[in-house]
Fold Ger(X)C family spore germination protein.
Amino acid sequence: MKRPFVFALCICCLFSLSGCWNKFELTDWAFVQAIAMDGSPDGKVQLTTHFYKPGGGGSLEGGQQGPSAFNITTKADTVFEAIRDIPLRLGRKAQWSHMRIILISDQLGKTRNIKELTDFFMRDHEPRDTVTVVIAKGTAKDYLTEKPFIESTIGQQLREMSRSAARLSSKTKDVDMLNLAIQFKSQTGIAMLPYLYSNGFPGEALSKLAVLKDGKLVNDFMNSANVESLVILRDEFDFGILEIPCSGDSGKKETIEVTSLHTKKRVTTDAESVSVRFDTKIKGSFSEIRCTSALNTDAENQVVERIRVYLEKELRKTIRLSQQKKLDLLGIGDWLYRHRPELWKKWKPGWDNRYAKADFDLHIDVEVVNSGVLISKPYYE
């Protein structure tokens, strides 16, 4: 009696096992690598979708290589409608789980709220939170027509450029969908995205930041020097090189490879004002020596002081710039929201003006670990 019962139970279990119930076959999908969003004269969103072409990199007759990707352009009032129009031109359904990067033109970012433009990709289950998001100067779709240097598609190439630029140079930020969603929840309404621009592609493709206020692009004034200073102040400096001018008007510069950099922020408040102190500790090694010679104790102290003075000047320049624009790029408002919620509730309506009048104090500690050679002087002397 037990055997028929066990057999029946096994049959029931087999029916309960999950299987592949998706009605789409592999040949029904087209895998997205990147998208570019632009505006159009009629006020609609122009969506250029960059698809990976399976087998496109294989050899054809004559030993030539076929294209590994192609672009489809659609236009509609909303992003989702433009996406649903893709099968009309392609004959396949777009699949978003392999998407690498989203490019949004700066002109579109000034007229449309970027929160709305990215809403579909944050809600849909297919796009991953790790998709990189950047602002592109000019027409965003033009960047998707370029050929990649080493990656299979330009979408993957741009994504790797964004990640490496932030990690290895600290002249920009690497922002993905998850990070952007967190920035959109900022109490000050400030968000920052990498700024992609072309001066003979790739040129200096990623060494700026685009600043958003309440979801709209308000400025692209953050050049590479400002970004380095901003990243230092926000304690987000990962790795990079600092160029330190020599004394006098020679125009020469020496380079320091930063091996360790940490910044601590301390905020104090009274009844009507706020003061912020930054303590920055930097360790680094000389990479190029052009005007420093014989680093004995006195000479080393002079070099350290020259580095400290220069960095303080650059940091203060970035702080003044953010205060002039009344843009809290340093996250002071978010700190107050977390640590002084009652005070922040009172200050939030007029925070931009209060931030512009805030006092900032900088304390920088520099340590030169080594000069890279036994003799600390220019090798050609």
